[in-house]
Amino acid sequence: xxxxxxxxxxxxxxxxxxxxxxCDPISGHTALYWYRQSLGQGLEFLIYFQGNSAxxxxxxxxxxxxxxxxxxxxxxxxxxxxQQEDSAVYLCASxxxxxxxxxxTIYFGEGSWLTVV
Amino acid sequence: QQQVKQSPQSLIVQKGGISIxxxxxxxxxxxxxxxxxxxxxxxxxxxxxxxxxxxxxxEGRFTISFNKSxxxxxxxxxxxxxxxxxxxxxxxxxxxxxxxxxxxxxxxVKP
Lengths: 117, 111
Fold this sequence. Notes:
The complex is a heterodimer of chains A (117) and B (111).
Chain A: E1 5-7, E2 10-13, E3 19-24, E4 31-37, E5 43-50, E6 65-69, E7 75-79, E8 88-95, E9 107-108, E10 112-116
Parallel strand pairs in A: 2-10
Antiparallel strand pairs in A: 1-3, 3-7, 4-5, 4-8, 6-7, 8-9, 8-10
Chain B: E1 4-7, E2 10-14, E3 19-25, E4 33-38, E5 45-50, E6 56-59, E7 62-67, E8 72-77, E9 86-92, E10 100-101, E11 105-110
Parallel strand pairs in B: 2-11
Antiparallel strand pairs in B: 1-3, 3-8, 4-5, 4-9, 6-7, 7-8, 9-10, 9-11
């Protein structure tokens, strides 16, 4: 597709279950970001992958959160033992080379809406 | 030092008026300042961006004003239209790193 694709678009899960959220970045984009947006809140940085460099995991809120990026393309964000406070929209974004550098635009997907009940 | 503070939280403007949203930052290493527009149920989309070597950038009805010494930048929407009603986020980054976002401004343009 032409844009950043995320799946599932909506997920309802029970407290304590694990969830996986998937992101397909724009083809050729080497930088990939995950953000979290709680209802009516700003965008909270979670993790950033850039090429073969070690990812910037500084935004992950706890060790229940992890992410990987396979083959420099698709990324999966995993939340283990989900809690109600994990309910939010999880947004993935990608850019050609580091976003902002040389004016590269960071493009966002439409997000995965996670509800923990 | 990594924070970006945005105001106001919400804004109501009459059609044809000027919408102004302000942001302030602390980290002087930031070198890229974009504004994103987000409609309900959609992901944010880049609206306009500026680098600290210029004081103003204009694209159509949208203008960024940048004050490096005050560490502030603002978005001006001229001739605001109901279709501009959305949430606007300012952001900043350093050397192509992660974007740090402001808390967002919910803009409502009344017909």
